[in-house]
């Protein structure tokens, strides 16, 4: 390699390291402008590669080989590289037009580190110009002037990052838009040179002497500035286009005041900072969880509670204007409402049967708190994920719960025994009651019969006392001497001798026997 080739080769290596450094800074900060600058440096590296190839082919021994098709391959590769540069540039344009706020971070140290990219781009450009003038190389001098564009791109990026670090986050997107214009111009330069070389069947001259002289005489700003200005103005107005998906509402603000809410579809607004738009998903149910929280119950017991809160956006305008950290706001309101609800119930209710009632009360209290702050948030539900006593008193709670279960078991057993004995006792009582009533009825009937019998005998005795007395006598004898043989004698008979009368068993007989 001669001095010119070594210079281009060294600058290609430095440029490669610079590109990797810019991509790393972009990943660490989320800056779109830094990523655009890295891609612009990639285009500059591609130009450097083509310059190096041109220097090689300018040698006599390589020029012969170029005549056998090497030039055509180089030109086609250059054309493909330009297409790739346009594609990456369009991807960045899409992100710029999307209007999504960049997720920027670490802006302070990244801005300071980005100053290194300005210094490195300046060193590369000055090195190419110095060696180009020393060796009288038009291509190297033109490449040096082209590398100066990378200095301006790096300065724009640093300015955008500095503005974002001061709170103007849109400056990063604006810087990315400016760098994208430079990327398109670099891609256009490579594509134009490649098409010209293919059409004329000659060597690729990305940084030709004529082009350098043209650029040097007019200055790159005199050519690029009008085009870049028009492109920037067009991009600025295109940033006013935005789309709203189904289930979303766009809140449009003009200088901070809400002027309308747009539904699903494509819309246009004045670009920032005149008007801004915030797209809010109304049908998105968000969910946050609390960690384990120590809460005091109504009977002054300490329990550990973990819960989740589901919410969605009810009023998009109020949500955009009054809420900056919705998760934190809902979490604080939910925890406060949950503490209030738990504090109104006893520990047994919280741990067992009243969870549903506590959740409903927490939903109402959370919604009331958010409404007082005009948050535009609708609470969908509060769910107790865990409620348990603290670990220090968990054993005591388990003993109490076990004793309570034993008490319930004993009560249930007693109720079962009562249900078994009471029907039997009631049956026996009814049986005894019915027997007593039957006995009383029997005795009353017997007494009535005896009284009637006595009355009939009395009447009979009054009518015929002797006969009745004799009959009663015989009945009494019959009853008192039951089973014994009895003899009825005529009182007029005076026994003077002893007669033995033998009766025949089984039939009544008259004694003394009739003669």
UniProtKB/TrEMBL annotation:
Keywords: Membrane, Plasmid, Transmembrane, Transmembrane helix. The chain crosses the membrane at residues 7-25, 37-57, 77-98, 110-129, 149-168, 174-198, 219-238. HflC and HflK may interact to form a multimeric complex. GO terms for molecular function: monoatomic cation transmembrane transporter activity. One of its GO terms (cellular component) is membrane. This is Protein HflK. HflC and HflK could encode or regulate a protease. It is found in: Membrane. It comes from Aquibium oceanicum. PANTHER family: MODULATOR OF FTSH PROTEASE HFLC. Belongs to the band 7/mec-2 family. HflK subfamily. Residues 239-401 form the Band domain. InterPro entries: Band_7, Band_7/SPFH_dom_sf, Cation_efflux, Cation_efflux_TM, Cation_efflux_TMD_sf, HflK. It is a multi-pass membrane protein; Single-pass membrane protein. It comes from the Bacteria.
């Amino acid at each position: 390699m001669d001095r010119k080739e070594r210079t281009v080769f060294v600058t290609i290596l430095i440029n490669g390291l610079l590109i990797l450094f810019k991509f790393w800074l972009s990943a660490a900060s989320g800056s779109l402008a830094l990523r655009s600058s890295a891609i612009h440096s990639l285009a500059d590296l591609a130009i450097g590669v083509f310059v190096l190839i041109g220097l090689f082919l300018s040698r006599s021994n390589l020029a012969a080989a170029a005549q056998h098709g090497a030039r055509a391959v180089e030109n086609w590769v250059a054309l493909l590289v330009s297409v790739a540069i346009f594609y990456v540039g369009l991807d960045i344009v899409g992100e710029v037009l999307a209007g999504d706020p960049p997720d920027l971070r670490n802006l302070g140290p990244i801005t300071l580190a980005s100053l290194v990219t300005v210094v490195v781009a300046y060193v590369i450009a000055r090195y190419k110009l110095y060696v180009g003038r020393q060796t009288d190389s038009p291509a190297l001098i033109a490449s040096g002037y082209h590398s100066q564009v990378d200095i301006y791109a790096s300065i724009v990026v640093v300015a955008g990052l500095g503005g974002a670090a001061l709170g103007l986050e849109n400056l990063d997107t604006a810087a990315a838009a400016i760098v994208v214009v430079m990327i398109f111009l670099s891609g256009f330069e490579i594509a134009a040179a490649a098409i010209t070389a293919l059409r004329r069947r000659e060597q690729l001259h990305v940084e030709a002497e004529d082009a350098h002289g043209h650029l040097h005489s007019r200055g790159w700003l005199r050519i690029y500035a009008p085009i870049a200005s028009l492109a920037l103005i067009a991009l600025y107005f295109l940033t006013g286009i935005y789309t709203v998906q189904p289930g979303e509402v766009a809140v449009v603000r003009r200088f901070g005041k809400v002027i309308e809410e747009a539904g699903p579809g494509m819309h246009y607004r004045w670009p920032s900072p005149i008007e801004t738009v915030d797209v809010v998903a109304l049908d998105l149910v968000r969910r946050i969880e609390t960690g384990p929280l120590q809460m005091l119950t109504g009977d002054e017991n300490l329990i550990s509670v973990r819960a989740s809160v589901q919410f969605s956006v009810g009023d998009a305008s109020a949500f955009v204007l009054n809420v900056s950290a919705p998760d934190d706001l809902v979490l604080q309101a939910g925890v406060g409402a949950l503490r209030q609800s738990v504090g109104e119930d006893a520990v047994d209710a919280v741990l067992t049967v009243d969870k549903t009632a506590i959740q409903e009360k927490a939903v109402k209290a959370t919604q009331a708190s958010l409404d007082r702050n005009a948050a535009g948030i609708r609470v969908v539900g509060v769910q107790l994920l865990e409620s348990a006593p603290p670990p220090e008193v968990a054993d005591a709670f388990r003993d109490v719960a076990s004793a309570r279960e034993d008490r319930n078991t004993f009560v249930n057993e007693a109720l079962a025994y009562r249900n078994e004995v009471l029907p039997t006792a009631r049956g026996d009582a009814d049986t005894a009651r019915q027997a007593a009533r039957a006995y009383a009825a029997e005795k009353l009937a017997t007494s009535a019969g005896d009284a009637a019998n006595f009355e009939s005998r009395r009447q009979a005795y009054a009518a015929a006392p002797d006969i009745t007395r004799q009959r009663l006598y015989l009945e009494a004898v019959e009853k008192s001497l039951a089973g014994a043989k009895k003899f009825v004698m005529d009182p007029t008979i005076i026994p003077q001798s002893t007669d033995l009368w033998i009766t025949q068993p089984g039939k009544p007989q008259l004694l003394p026997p009739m003669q």
